[in-house]
Every structure is written in structure tokens, then in C-alpha cells.
Specification:
Elements lengths: L12 E5 L6 H7 L7 E5 L4 H9 L6 E4 L5 H14 L3 E6 L1 H14 L3 E5 L11 E6 L2 E6 L5 E5 H4 L4 H28 L5 H21 L4 H18 L8 H12 L6 H15 L4 H12 L12 H14 L12 H12 L1
Parallel strand pairs: 1-8, 2-3, 2-4, 4-5, 5-8
Antiparallel strand pairs: 6-7
Helix pairs in contact: 3-4, 6-7, 6-8, 6-10, 7-8, 9-10, 9-12, 10-11, 10-13, 12-13
Bound molecules: zinc ion.
The site of zinc ion has 7 residues, from helix 10.
């Protein structure tokens, strides 16, 4: 009898714990990974100290600090890599550092480890890199990290806005999965049950647990974001974690560049999109947001009603082949949703 399976590419190392960075080679050994010459990439602020902790247990290593996730910084890293010939790239930092390392890793055919210093979005574990090309920001398919190592002692000390941003990105899975399902019914797009389940269960377990306990679980946030990245890798598309709320955020980036953190923008758009999808969970999410001081409306991140609505109208054009609830929503309903969700 023939048997058919789906093969999954997931990172060899997935570790969430506390205080393990100073013994990184030992941790990697548990996963049968041995690297002789790591190349560390960090940012220029607090992430330098975290990188120093991780470096302390290696005899040989190379190191570079980057300012942003731009092509010029990528080329600077690549030049250094040509000189030092490392066997692994270790990204220690936030989204900009991890995205740069992903891109370099793909072009240099060198594995990379993702060691986030904050939990601001699901890019910590996804194969998608956000890179600045001149004035535009683009999401590019790259490679999955070989390892994702989240030290909770580090990420819980990061700015509170980064934690809120991660929460926004994780909860956006709920509207993203609705949109994926809507698209599968309207356009016959393939809907991957396994990836969708991973995405929605990660999001809901964090949400329900935090609601029940009346406080945020950093560990479930870390697990949720890690599983979201893996869901995208399994689906071979960002669909499990990116629907209309992400298109609205991308439109905000295009119209009003560098307005706010990605997760705050998608998190603000999520209840709005859920309302359009006739999903009553938008009320529970707003209730939860109130309790954790999450920005409750676009105004809270400096966007007027007019500016936000412009972004919503532009959103379906951002990715023409991404069918979402916005493809079949009239402007009257959009204004009604705004007035009901944000007022
Ligand atoms: Zn996102």
C-alpha cells in the first residue's frame, strides 16, 4: 500500500527558556549542532550587551553591529562574511537584525540562528524578511532559521511597546485565518488545515490564558509567535498570519512611512477586520486591549480617521492576488465598522 505524507521543514532548534544564552554551545550540543566560528549580528543599542553574553562562550567569533534592515547594511554584512568565512550567522536583536540575518543567510547559504531580544512580531521565526529598498519596505521570502532560541529573561525586559506589538501580531492570526477561509470559498485558494490550526491555536491559547489569568503570559506569547512563523513555513505562504489587517498595515506603511510598530498597526486593524467579517470576537479583543493598555484606535498611534480610511481603501491593491474580506466590502460598511469599533 502506498502512503503519502507531507514533509515539513521546521527549525532544528526550538528553545524557549531562561538564562541559557551564556552557555549557547552547550545548548546547541543538545540538538547535535556544533559551530566553530559563529558570525554575530546585533543592533547598536541594548542588543549589543545581549550579543556579548551569547559570544562569551565561544573561543572564536566575528561580530558586526547594524543600524537598519536596508540593502546597504546587508551588503556591509556580506563583505564581512566574505572575509571571516563563518559556519553560522547568529542574529541577536529585534526585527531589523533578524530580517537582515535571514536575507544574508539566504544569499550566502549559511545557516542562521534567531535569538530575539524582543517579541515584537512573528518574524522571529518566519521565513519572511522585511527589507528597506530606498524608501519602500518589502516583505521577501527567504529561509527559515536553523534555530530559534528565546530567552524569556531577555525578552520580558524589552520595552513594553514591543510586547504589545507582539500581542497585536499574534492576535491578528484570528482575522487572517478568517480571510484565508473566505478566500478558499471564493477563489478556490488552497486552505491548509494544519497550518491554520497551528496559527489559530497559538493565538487563542495565548489570548484565552491571558484573559483568564488577567495578565499577559510572556511564555505563551513567545510560543505563539514561534508557532506562527512555523505555520507560515508549513503553508509556504504568509496566509496563516496575514489577512486584511496586514494589508491595511502595509498600506499605512506606504502612505505614512514609519508610523508605528508593525504589530501595533495590525493589532489595531484586527478588531476592525473582525467586525467586517461578522466575527464577534472583536468585542473580546477590544476588552482585552483595554486591560493591557493596547492602543484602542488609529488615533492612538497618530493616524486620523481620514488617514486610516485611506489606508483601508488602498489595502486591496497592496497584494492584488490576496483575496480578503475587503474585496467584497462596500465603503458604507467600512465607515460603519470604523464608527462601531473605534468610537
Ligand atoms: Zn505580522
Amino acid at each position: 500500500m502506498s502512503q503519502f505524507y507531507k514533509f515539513l521543514n521546521i527549525p532544528a532548534v526550538q528553545k524557549i527558556g531562561r538564562g541559557f544564552l551564556q552557555k549557547l554551545p552547550e545548548v546547541l550540543k543538545e540538538f547535535h549542532l556544533y559551530f566553530e566560528h559563529p558570525f554575530f549580528v546585533s543592533g547598536t543599542t541594548e542588543t549589543r550587551q545581549v550579543a556579548a553574553i551569547a559570544q562569551s562562550s565561544f573561543r572564536h567569533f566575528s561580530y558586526i553591529q547594524i543600524k537598519e534592515n536596508s540593502i546597504s547594511e546587508i551588503e556591509r554584512v556580506e563583505k564581512e562574511i566574505d572575509v571571516s568565512s563563518p559556519d553560522v550567522i547568529v542574529a541577536v536583536g529585534g526585527g531589523k537584525v533578524i530580517d537582515t540575518a535571514k536575507f544574508v543567510s539566504m544569499r550566502a547559504y549559511i545557516p542562521f540562528l534567531s535569538i530575539p531580544t524582543s517579541l515584537s512580531n512573528d518574524g522571529i521565526a518566519s521565513p519572511i524578511a522585511v527589507i528597506k529598498f530606498r524608501k519602500r519596505v518589502k516583505s521577501i521570502g527567504t529561509v527559515m532559521p536553523t534555530g530559534i532560541l528565546i530567552d524569556l529573561d531577555i525578552v520580558e525586559k524589552a520595552r513594553y511597546s514591543t510586547i504589545l506589538s507582539g500581542i497585536g501580531d499574534l492576535l491578528s492570526n484570528i482575522s487572517a485565518i478568517n480571510d484565508w477561509y473566505i478566500s478558499s470559498k471564493n477563489t478556490n485558494e488552497h486552505f491548509d488545515e494544519y497550518a491554520a490550526s497551528l496559527s489559530i491555536l497559538s493565538s487563542e491559547s495565548f489570548f484565552l490564558n491571558s484573559m483568564k489569568r488577567g495578565k499577559i503570559s510572556i511564555e505563551l506569547l513567545a510560543r505563539g509567535l514561534m508557532m506562527s512563523g512555523i505555520a507560515m513555513a508549513i503553508a509556504h505562504t504568509s496566509r496563516p498570519c496575514s489577512g486584511a489587517e496586514h494589508l491595511i498595515s502595509h498600506a499605512i506603511d506606504r502612505l505614512y512611512p514609519f508610523k508605528s510598530l508593525h504589530g501595533l498597526q495590525v493589532g489595531i486593524a484586527t478588531p476592525f477586520v473582525l467586525y467586517l467579517q461578522n466575527d464577534e470576537r472583536y468585542m473580546e479583543i477590544l476588552e482585552f486591549y483595554k486591560g493591557i493598555s493596547f492602543p484602542l484606535s488609529p488615533e492612538k498611534i497618530g493616524l486620523s480617521k481620514k488617514e486610516f480610511l485611506e489606508a483601508v481603501y488602498l489595502a486591496p491593491e497592496i497584494r492584488a492576488n490576496r483575496y480578503t474580506i475587503l474585496n467584497r466590502t462596500k465603503r458604507d460598511s467600512i465607515i460603519e465598522a470604523f464608527n462601531n469599533v473605534y468610537q
